[in-house]
Amino acid sequence: MTDQEEEALNLIQSHRQGVLQSELWKLLDIDSRKCSRIVKRLIDAGLIERIEFRSDGIKTYLLRAKKRAIDPSVILAGTEILPCIGCDQECTPEECPQLLDWIYQLALEEYQE
């Protein structure tokens, strides 16, 4: 993946609702033609999806990052699954009561072994 493709993907991933393709090329400071080629490569790689969108009567595309499968080793600690997986709350890890309880439970299990 080129630096510009990686930068485009990072920009798209950082916008939860997606980024309009007509805005992406401006954010990347490249021409629209080059942006289209980058978008095509990201779509072909299965990293983003492109949804037709009308803005002020003009057709453009909304670009959204595809969710990738998670490596199970990242979400498991022993046999316990990370509580954040199914969570839809907007919180910070430092202040999340479910996450803190999970970490505390893991520490207890480790201490008892």
TrEMBL record:
Domain B-block binding subunit of TFIIIC per the UniProt entry, residue ranges: 9-67
Taxonomy, superkingdom: Archaea
Protein name: Winged helix-turn-helix transcriptional regulator
Native organism: Methanoculleus frigidifontis
